[in-house]
Amino acid sequence: MQIQLNGEAKHLAAGLTVAQLIDSLGLRGRRIAVERNEEIVPKSEHKITRLVDGDRIEIVHAIGGG
Amino acid sequence: MTDFLQDQPLRIAGHAFTSRLLVGTGKYKDFDETADAIAASGAEVVTFAVRRTNLGQDADQPNLLDVVPPDRFTLLPNTAGCYTAKDAVRTCKLARELLDGHKLVKLEVLGDDSTLYPNVTETLKAAEELLADGFDVMVYTSDDPIVARELERLGCCAIMPLGSLIGSGHGIQNPHNIRLIIEQTSVPVLVDAGIGTASDAAMAMELGCDGVLMNSAIAHARQPVLMASAMKKAVEAGREAFLAGRMPRRQTADPSSPFAGRING
């Protein structure tokens, strides 16, 4: 399947969960937040939320700003 | 001795702060400089931006939240870079998730790239949505008293008019409007944007602002940590001068030494 990850196309194995995606990106345990199709995916639901073809995923973190 | 220097804390949405200087975390050379400047500023409230995580980079790279740990600072996620109410609301929801339910946000919805002037129509729309969703909204706005009044009426917990354009260092261009906003507003008023140097910060506080938020004035100083220290003192000095109440202005001179007893008298 193909998703949009932070604005870029990415091919993934079908049925991957949000938690598995985070692991595959080396982001486990990092301070991040995830949005799927413009809806927050709470941390408590990362393991049970399965991605589907066409999902638009945003993974964000805190950076310097004023 | 009477402790006449004792000030009330700055209260925002149930938080109480001793420092009336709020700082940003952008434009610093590195995280060490960021941490040193924040320490020198004495700030208790620190704002930051929310951005896409860089994917494929070293996962062990330092994180801003290690520099400003949420247990030591009151973090103020901002919506910088948002040009629509929709994007600002999404950003605040991401920040709330990032900080495990944190409700305090700095809302800014910008009009265009070259001025970064607030789009007040979108700002009002976003404020209404965020407040309905339970956020505590500190709002960046123009120095228009009517817009400020409307944002307060909606329920924003702090009104933050610009002194001048973001990052311009032009100071407070319309002190009369800032004063009008202060006089009509019950929640804290903070000048956010435009501060260039210490006297600008002192001026904001002398006008009666409850606090000042700045980033570039510190981060783009030749010596940011020293400027952070200067800003701390300027905000304190301006606050004390406001509380003390300035002397009346006069059109003519008024000697400080008595006329009586002069040798030529």
TrEMBL record, chain A:
SUPFAM superfamilies (UniProt xref): MoaD/ThiS (SSF54285)
One of its Pfam families is ThiS
Q: Which domain of life is it from?
A: Bacteria
Family annotation (NCBIfam families): thiS (TIGR01683)
What is the name listed in the Swiss-Prot or TrEMBL entry for this protein? Sulfur carrier protein ThiS
UniProtKB/TrEMBL annotation, chain B:
Q: Which GO terms describe its biological process?
A: thiamine diphosphate biosynthetic process
* Cited InterPro entries: Aldolase_TIM, Thiazole_synthase_ThiG, ThiG
Q: What is its main location?
A: cytoplasm
Its GO CC terms are: cytoplasm
A GO molecular function held by the record: thiazole synthase activity
Q: In which pathway does it act?
A: Cofactor biosynthesis; thiamine diphosphate biosynthesis
The residues that the entry says bind 1-deoxy-D-xylulose 5-phosphate are G167, A193, G194, N215, S216
Q: What reaction does this enzyme carry out catalytically?
A: [ThiS sulfur-carrier protein]-C-terminal-Gly-aminoethanethioate + 2-iminoacetate + 1-deoxy-D-xylulose 5-phosphate = [ThiS sulfur-carrier protein]-C-terminal Gly-Gly + 2-[(2R,5Z)-2-carboxy-4-methylthiazol-5(2H)-ylidene]ethyl phosphate + 2 H2O + H(+)
Q: Which residues form the active site?
A: K106
Kindly state which keywords UniProt assigns to this record, in alphabetical order: Cytoplasm, Schiff base, Thiamine biosynthesis, Transferase
Q: Which domain of life is it from?
A: Bacteria
UniProt-listed Enzyme Commission number(s): 2.8.1.10
Thiazole synthase ThiG domain residues: 12-258
* Intracellular or extracellular location(s): Cytoplasm
Question: What family, per the record?
Answer: Belongs to the ThiG family.
Assembly, per entry: Homotetramer. Forms heterodimers with either ThiH or ThiS.
**Job of this protein:** Catalyzes the rearrangement of 1-deoxy-D-xylulose 5-phosphate (DXP) to produce the thiazole phosphate moiety of thiamine. Sulfur is provided by the thiocarboxylate moiety of the carrier protein ThiS. In vitro, sulfur can be provided by H(2)S.
The protein's name: Thiazole synthase
The record lists the organism as Billgrantia pellis
- What is this organism's lineage? Bacteria, Pseudomonadati, Pseudomonadota, Gammaproteobacteria, Oceanospirillales
